[in-house]
């Protein structure tokens, strides 16, 4: 099946169950605003994107540094992109590149273990250390804004599911630190957002609610007979039941609301990573459509799993390479930095295309464009080979939330670790050359600008005033 995401009939995005979907900006409403009536507040959206395996980090004395280093050259408003980053030139005024940020609890951990903590800052660790995680940035915001839309959040990845501890396929974690399964099939994502489910939904929801009520009653009677350790285990289970209860109640509120109508013939929903460039474009397009129709205001997409495991490693075939992970191991070879840079350039091309599409779309029923009202984080938890410091990060959009872009916040300066891996000790095992800023400082800033009444997240020590 094919769909065209640019031919949306916004007149059919109706109001249901007391919650507005997306409405057009009627001229009469605009006149009322001009006469002094209260303006409709723009929605505030959050999107977070993760790519694995780090980025090209040739040292300044390497001839490849000028052309293929991932981080820009310069600082502040005076910076230039390398060939690796050139595809973002057209949206340069709408983004900020950051260096010298990372999560303190993970700086001495192998880089392939760290996708799990990218949005949580938790001590997920490595080796034999017990695995625990905490709530992710996106889910903190989803708790704040999720009741305004049909879906509290959209969780996607190229590999799907949850993966394994320190080998996650999802960057979203709930309040108990449990991984939220990600969807990787474009048709299932599209159907979830825009295709009506069976007509027996009301009866099934009623049965589900009845079953949950009985389960909670039984659990409370059981609790009185358990040891304290068993009670803690039961409480964790009951937390899951209560989450299900909340979802059932929300589903009931949206049951009669009409779905947005999408018409067209240009979106291929039967894609897999066998068509890597079109697959990546389609996944970005689905997020664009979910935001444009106000189906959700929170989305995450893990573009690839760490360590070259899974179908996501085949995305490199879009630019003529067999697998993506291997490129990060071959930078010591002739054209090694160039090859790795070409793959990262491909990711930047498709991300830049997504940003440009948001920027070219007027905010439905509001002011500015979709990008002005959408805050986007794009990055990885490694920079140089397996190095869990100096994360490569791009913050984009959100200018209506007060973000200042068109800059490079270069905390790392020229004092960074890099160079090719020569087969001996790895950079993550070396002593750090400088002290990174806690990435949670940025996350607390993002939450505050998104309207969450907080000045803290995880282990932050302050806010980032420069953005």
From TrEMBL:
Entry-linked InterPro entries: DUF1552, TAT_signal
Superkingdom of this protein's organism: Bacteria
Protein name: DUF1552 domain-containing protein
Organism from which the protein derives: Rubripirellula amarantea
């Amino acid at each position: 099946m094919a769909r065209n995401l640019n031919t949306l009939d916004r007149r059919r995005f109706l109001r249901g169950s007391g919650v507005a979907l997306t409405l057009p900006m009627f001229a009469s409403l605009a006149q009322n605003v001009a006469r002094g009536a209260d303006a409709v507040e723009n929605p505030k959206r959050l999107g977070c994107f993760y790519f694995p395996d780090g980025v090209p980090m040739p040292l300044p004395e390497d001839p490849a540094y000028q052309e293929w280093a991932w981080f820009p050259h310069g600082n502040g408003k005076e910076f230039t992109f390398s060939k690796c980053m050139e595809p973002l030139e057209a949206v340069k005024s709408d983004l900020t590149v950051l260096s010298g940020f990372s999560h303190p609890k993970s700086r001495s951990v192998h880089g392939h273990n760290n996708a799990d903590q990218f949005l949580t800052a938790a001590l997920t660790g490595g080796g034999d250390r017990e695995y625990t995680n905490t709530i992710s940035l996106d889910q903190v915001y989803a708790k704040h804004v999720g009741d305004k839309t049909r879906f509290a959040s959209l969780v996607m990845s190229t590999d799907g599911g949850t993966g394994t501890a320190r080998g996650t396929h999802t960057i979203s974690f709930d309040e108990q630190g449990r991984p939220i399964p990600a969807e990787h099939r474009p048709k299932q994502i599209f159907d979830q957002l825009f295709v009506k489910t069976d007509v027996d939904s009301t009866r099934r929801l009623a049965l589900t609610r009845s079953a949950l009520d009985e389960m909670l009653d039984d659990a409370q009677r059981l609790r009185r007979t358990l040891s304290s350790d068993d009670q803690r285990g039961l409480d964790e289970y009951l937390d899951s039941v209560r989450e299900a209860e909340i979802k059932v109640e929300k589903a009931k509120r949206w049951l009669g609301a009409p779905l947005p109508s999408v018409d067209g013939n240009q979106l291929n929903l039967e894609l897999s990573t066998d068509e890597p460039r079109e697959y990546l474009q389609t996944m970005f397009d689905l997020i664009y459509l979910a935001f444009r129709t106000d189906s959700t205001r929170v989305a995450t997409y893990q573009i690839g799993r760490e360590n070259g495991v899974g179908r996501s490693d085949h995305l490199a075939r879009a630019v003529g390479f067999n697998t993506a992970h291997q490129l990060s191991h071959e930078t010591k070879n002739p054209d090694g930095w160039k090859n790795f840079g070409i793959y990262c350039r491909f990711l930047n091309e498709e991300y830049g295309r997504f940003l440009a599409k948001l920027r070219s779309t007027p905010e439905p029923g509001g002011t500015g464009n979709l990008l002005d009202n959408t805050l986007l984080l794009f990055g990885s938890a490694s920079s140089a080979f397996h190095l869990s410091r100096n994360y490569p990060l791009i913050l984009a959009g959100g200018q209506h939330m007060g973000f200042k872009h068109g800059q490079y916040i270069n905390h790392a300066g020229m004092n960074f670790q890099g160079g090719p891996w020569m087969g001996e000790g790895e950079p993550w095992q070396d002593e750090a050359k400088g002290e990174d800023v806690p990435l949670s400082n940025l996350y607390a800033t993002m939450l505050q600008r998104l309207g969450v009444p907080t000045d803290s997240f995880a282990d932050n020590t302050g806010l980032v005033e420069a953005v």
